Each structure stands twice: as structure tokens, then as C-alpha cells.
């Protein structure tokens, strides 16, 4: 269980947020569209993408990894990081569901995301009708 897991980004996320202080807390906040810049070697993986919503996995690379408890910005209560959506956690993997607005070649325009500009994009999964994600 201690063997490393190797993840390779498939692209990067472009948002207007340059600092943690600017970044909204929570997906869908901030009102600014995000752009997913897919690396050229993965562009073929976008072929026939037609979902109206996407589940995105991304890596909060600038988050603290040694935090186990934090104070919720929503109600001020202290919780373990597994009981909240804090970016600060042992493995700072983020998951957000966003609307797909447009496909522009190897760039996807999506709804607002709560991450800093340049965040590593790990995976994209289309949301099937009925709101359930497709199997991994």
C-alpha cells in the first residue's frame, strides 16, 4: 500500500485566479468560465465528446498536504478534511462537475472552477444522462 502512484496531467486549467486569496471557495462560484487546455498528445481523446456536463479531476498542487483538520469557511466549524471540500489534504485531488460550454479544438470551455490558473488537469469523464457518471 506504500507504493507510489504515478499520475500524468492531461492538460492544465486556465482560470482568472492567480492567488489563493482571489480564488473562490467551492466549485461553480466566481462566475468566470474556465478553459481546459488539453495537451496535444491527448487531443484525440476528445473525439466525439458530446456530453453537456463533465466530471473533472484535478490536482491542487499548491495546497498543503499535512493538514488533517480545518475550519470551514462556510460556518466556522472545525472538521476533518475528509468531511469537507478543503483543497488542503493528504492527496489534494479535486473533483468538480461543470457544464461543457464549447469545444474549440484541444480546448474545452467549461463553467466556473475553484482552482488557480495553471492547475494540473488529471482526467475528464462525461456525465451520462440521469446525472450518473459513467464507470471509470
Automatic annotation (TrEMBL):
Xref: Pfam families: TrmO_N
Residue ranges of every copy of the TsaA-like domain listed in the record: 7-136
Keyword S-adenosyl-L-methionine set for record: yes
Signal peptide: none
Superkingdom, taxonomy of origin: Bacteria
Keywords: S-adenosyl-L-methionine
Keyword S-adenosyl-L-methionine: yes
InterPro entries membership: TrmO-like_N, UPF0066_cons_site, YaeB-like, YaeB-like_sf, YaeB_N_sf
Family of this protein: Belongs to the tRNA methyltransferase O family.
PANTHER family cross-referenced by the UniProt entry: TRNA (ADENINE(37)-N6)-METHYLTRANSFERASE (PTHR12818)
Protein name: tRNA (N6-threonylcarbamoyladenosine(37)-N6)-methyltransferase TrmO
